[in-house]
């Protein structure tokens, strides 16, 4: 399993998370709870595939050897994927999907806000463009969390169950990381030390309005996407997503 | 009966233009109506501003009122600049 | 054509002399190409026919997302994924534009959708065929959207204002759908492996006849056409549109280097059109009746989406009501 330099790994973490999350959104096609939601979810999905492509293109340039964005998306195995464990989790009901969406949006929002001021101009540019999109995503998912949390008894219960299902994967959003600290001290990206606190503050705010309880801090998990230790769900997701490229390696699409 | 409320959507396509009616969306409140309208009617960069209003709140003229309401203005030609003939020496006015 | 057999409720088209004053004024407006708007007087059958036609069209857009949804999770490159996602999203959007036009006639969207789910409303037969390889995404865009465009372009001039305006918007947005589909196929034929070329031919073989059926029964079997044409909610007959589609598609087929599964297809110099073989109308009527390859799956998916989402829609309403009460109290 190839391990790239810190910056490339960081770019893959951003790109893989966006793509895997978008792939889950694609699974909702024709199945959303309202026709208006088909539009909304697909808009978010389109933004995220676009973001993934931007991060991948930069990563591919750094890797060289003819790798391009599509090779990164469609020809790597699960052990090489660096996406947040949260986004690879199955969609479940709309409450689970929106909870994943909201946790991810809040993480992206604060991360991209910081990355706008990266010493690396390419990162700063992609972050600035993506942040506009993510600001809207966060607004949308926050509203849905409030509607479902403070809607009917049933929706409230479903939200509590959804939070219980995915909360354990949020440890990745609040853990300090050595390679990112190294990138920050060499001035490539700004310090991300405040990120966990900012993420939690957003979750607290929205959950308060939604009459939902924020669980205790998640304990560190045995798995971690940073080392390619995923849940079993990712492999199946990739098998579907990568099918054509894997089955017909000589083809041009 | 629809579960959600019908809202009419008006979009300003460019700065300096009026908002123009484009269609409707279903939503539970005005805030959601704005977002649904954004996702539906501005996918191709068609807008800089959106208004929404519950369809039920709009009052329209009835078709049998057309003649009394609009025909009387037909013969008021003196409201139009072309009614006034001025000699060429005046130039553009 | 997305609305294949629309009942007009009239046996014979009335002449102006047979009409009462309101209906005559209405028909004269239509004859003069003046648009009918929501608040204008209109015959009850015109309203009902339009509701049926526009809702069938809208249902087709929504059900039409499913065959493509079958491949959106398997699109082979990021570019293809983005294109397909955008196309499917447009279809949801077009469904919504059309429902919105339909609601100006006093129909209720949820009620009309319920008719679809209970099998009382139709949608285009084409979406009851399975998509079995990636080339289907190309063939659907090229043939199915192509056939839809042939039908929709004249409908931009349809007599009902809101429908006409929705069609203008849809046609403008849909111009990329057919090109996108054709480009998928052309790329596979020009740059692909033999296996990929075989996929393209296979997709065309399966989708060619169902695409021709999209235009609906032949004119001799279309008892409602005369009234629809008089009302200008249909601007050309089924056979005219089908011929137009074939004539414009065959040169594109030849450019691809593919064939269609019709031994009788040949250029008729005298007519200035292509001749083509007999359509299997038995199959068409069976699919329309609900016995096509995917009818059950398509409707079940849509029914489940509505049922599974009920608690979400209810919660959103409940939350909005709470907020309104809080604001009123404050």
From TrEMBL, chain A:
Gene Ontology BP annotations: phenylacetate catabolic process
Record's GO cellular component terms: cytosol
Annotated InterPro entries: Aromatic_CoA_ox/epox (IPR052703), Ferritin-like (IPR012347), Ferritin-like_SF (IPR009078), PaaA_PaaC (IPR007814), PaaC (IPR011882)
Record-linked Gene3D superfamilies: 1.20.1260.10
Classification via PANTHER family: 1,2-PHENYLACETYL-COA EPOXIDASE, SUBUNIT C, PHENYLACETIC ACID DEGRADATION PROTEIN PAA
Protein name (database record): Phenylacetate-CoA oxygenase subunit PaaI
Automatic annotation (TrEMBL), chain B:
Pfam families membership: PaaB (PF06243)
Species lineage: Bacteria, Pseudomonadati, Pseudomonadota, Gammaproteobacteria, Oceanospirillales
InterPro entries: PaaB (IPR009359), PaaB_sf (IPR038693)
Source organism of this protein record: Marinomonas piezotolerans
The protein's name in its UniProt record: 1,2-phenylacetyl-CoA epoxidase subunit B
UniProtKB/TrEMBL annotation, chain C:
Gene Ontology biological process terms from the UniProt entry: phenylacetate catabolic process
One Gene Ontology molecular-function label: phenylacetyl-CoA 1,2-epoxidase activity
GO cellular component: cytosol
Highest taxon above the source species: Bacteria
The organism of origin for this protein: Marinomonas piezotolerans
Segments traversing the membrane: none
One Pfam family here: PaaA_PaaC
UniProt cross-references to Gene3D superfamilies, sorted A to Z: 1.20.1260.10
Designated name of the protein: 1,2-phenylacetyl-CoA epoxidase subunit A
């Amino acid at each position: 399993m190839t391990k790239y330099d810190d910056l490339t790994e960081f770019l893959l973490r951003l790109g893989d998370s966006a793509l895997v999350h978008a792939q889950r959104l694609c699974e909702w096609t024709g199945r959303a709870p309202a026709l208006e939601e088909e539009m909304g979810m697909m808009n978010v999905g389109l933004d995220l595939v676009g973001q993934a492509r931007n991060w991948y293109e930069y990563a591919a340039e750094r890797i060289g050897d003819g790798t391009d964005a599509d090779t990164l998306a469609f020809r790597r195995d699960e052990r090489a994927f660096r996406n947040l464990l949260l986004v690879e989790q199955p969609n479940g009901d709309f409450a689970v999907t929106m909870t994943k969406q909201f946790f991810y949006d809040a993480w992206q929002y604060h991360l991209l806000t910081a990355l706008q001021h990266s010493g690396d101009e390419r990162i700063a540019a992609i972050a600035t463009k993506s942040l506009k999109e993510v600001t809207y995503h966060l607004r949308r998912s926050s509203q849905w969390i409030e509607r479902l949390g403070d809607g009917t008894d049933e929706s409230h219960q479903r939200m509590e169950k959804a939070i219980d299902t995915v909360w354990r994967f949020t440890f990745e959003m609040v853990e300090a990381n050595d390679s990112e600290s190294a990138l920050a001290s060499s001035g490539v990206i700004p310090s991300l030390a405040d990120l966990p606190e900012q993420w939690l503050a957003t979750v607290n705010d929205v959950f308060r309005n939604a009459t939902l309880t924020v669980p205790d801090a998640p304990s560190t998990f045995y798995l971690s996407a940073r080392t390619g230790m995923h849940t079993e769900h990712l492999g199946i997701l990739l098998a579907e997503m990568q099918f054509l490229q894997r089955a017909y390696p000589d083809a041009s699409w | 009966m629809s579960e959600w409320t019908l809202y009419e959507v008006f979009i300003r396509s460019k700065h300096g233009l009026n908002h123009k009616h484009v269609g409707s969306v279903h939503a539970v409140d005005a805030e959601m109506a704005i977002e649904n309208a954004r996702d539906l009617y501005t996918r191709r960069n068609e807008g800089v501003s959106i208004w929404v209003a519950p369809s039920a709140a709009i009052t329209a003229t009835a078709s049998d009122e057309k003649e009394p309401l609009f025909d009387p203005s037909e013969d008021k030609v003196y409201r139009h600049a072309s009614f006034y003939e001025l000699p060429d020496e005046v130039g553009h006015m | 054509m997305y609305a294949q057999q629309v009942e007009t409720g009239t046996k014979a088209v009335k002449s102006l002399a047979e009409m009462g004053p309101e209906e005559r004024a209405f028909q004269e407006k239509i004859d003069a190409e003046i648009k009918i708007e929501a608040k204008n007087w209109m015959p009850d059958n015109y309203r009902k026919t339009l509701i049926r036609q526009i809702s069938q069209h809208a249902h087709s857009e929504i059900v039409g997302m499913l065959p493509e949804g079958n491949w959106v999770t398997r699109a082979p490159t990021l570019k293809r994924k983005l294109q397909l996602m955008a196309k499917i999203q447009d279809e949801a959007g077009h469904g919504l534009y059309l429902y919105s036009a339909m609601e100006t006639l006093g129909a209720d969207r949820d009620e009309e959708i319920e008719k679809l789910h209970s099998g009382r409303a139709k949608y285009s037969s084409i979406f009851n065929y399975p998509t079995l390889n990636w080339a289907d995404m190309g063939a659907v865009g090229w043939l199915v959207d192509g056939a839809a465009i042939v039908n929709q372009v004249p409908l931009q001039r349809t007599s009902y204002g809101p429908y006409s305006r929705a069609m203008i918007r849809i046609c403008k947005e849909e111009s990329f759908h057919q090109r996108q589909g054709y480009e998928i196929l052309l790329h596979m034929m020009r740059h692909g492996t033999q296996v990929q070329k075989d996929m393209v031919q296979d997709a065309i073989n399966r989708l060619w006849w169902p695409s021709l059926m999209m235009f609906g029964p032949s004119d001799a079997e279309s008892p409602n056409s005369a009234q629809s044409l008089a009302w200008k909610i249909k601007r050309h007959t089924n056979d005219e549109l089908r011929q137009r589609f074939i004539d414009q598609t065959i040169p594109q087929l030849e450019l691809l280097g593919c064939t269609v599964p019709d031994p009788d297809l040949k250029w008729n110099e005298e007519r200035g059109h292509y001749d083509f073989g007999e359509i299997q109308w038995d199959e068409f009527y069976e699919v329309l009746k609900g016995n096509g390859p995917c009818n059950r799956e398509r409707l079940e998916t849509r029914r489940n989406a509505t049922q599974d989402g009920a608690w979400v829609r209810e919660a959103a309403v409940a939350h909005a009501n709470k907020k309104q009460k809080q604001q009123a109290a404050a």
